[in-house]
Amino acid sequence: MANFHCNVISYTLRRTVDINVIIPTPTCPDAVGWGPKPARHTPDAKYPLLYLFHGYGNNQLQWTSYTNIELFAEERQIAVVMIAAENKCYVNHPKDRFFDFIEEELPDFMTGMFPVSGRKEDTYVAGLSMGGYGALMHGLSRSDRYQAIGAFSAAVGINPRRSDILDREDVQKLLPEDDLYKVAEKAVPNGIPKIYMSCGETDTLLETDKKFYQYLKDLGADIIWSQTPGYGHMWRFWNEEIERFLDWIPRTDAYAGSKRQI
Question: Taking the chain, what is the end-to-end CA distance rounded to the nearest angstrom?
């Protein structure tokens, strides 16, 4: 597994941004000749790609610090990209156009620099908490780009302009472009990616997330829901959920249906 830490000057954000990229590579068994074929760094085909979003107060490093995402990605031969989105909720702000950066510039960077697919059928987006909000916002808004969405303990009522969590009764105070309910109402009838939503049963966001899941289901979205007892807003839960999500996503790429032994 190769983990690239990139510090890139963004022409959208007009400043540098930190990006971490996980790319499957030959494993130790491959390197010593125990694999099914000779080890080489040129892949047989381009890798599917997961855009993975962090939560409030974190950065792109926490997913690799607190979960086994590198192992999971290596086993399933999928690339993963994580950006430092600060507390900007993955949406546009007057001076930081994070939504545009993710949807326009980041794919250009990824397909230009790494052996990853640019096809919708091979592209997924997921995140936790604030990143769950971001994954839903991007997946619902740009259904032409993503095959599936994963939202774990999603902060569906976050206020991107103030970067805080609102009381569930205050969701209606969001601007229309920030309100996931309004975005979903507009997007679902035209077709959206498959959605996986989950939350721990002791998480304070549980009822808010279940309400949004039911709203999407009532609209006709292809969505599943999972909740786990004994878990709150915590990394042990998200570590389990990201593996479940990777095993759930629909795949048609050259590596689909296989799992490497690491």
Answer: 10
pTM as predicted: 0.94
Cβ neighbourhood burial of 50 (10 Å; 0-12, 13-18, 19+): buried
Q: How far apart (Å, rounded) are the C-alpha atoms in residues 86 and 245?
A: 24
The torsion of the CA quartet 166, 168, 169, 172, rounded to 10 degrees, works out to 70
Strand boundaries in 11-92, DSSP class E: 15-23, 49-53, 79-83
Asked whether residue 106 carries a pLDDT value surpassing 90, the answer given is yes
Q: Which residue has the tokens 């996980």?
A: 22
Residue 96, C-beta contacts closer than 8 angstroms, at least 6 positions apart: 13, 86, 88
How, if at all, do strands 148-152 and 158-159 pair?
unpaired
The answer to whether 98 touches 160, Cβ cutoff 8 Å, is no
Per-residue pLDDT at 261 exceeds 90: no
Minimum mean pLDDT range among 100-104, 176-180, 258-262: 176-180
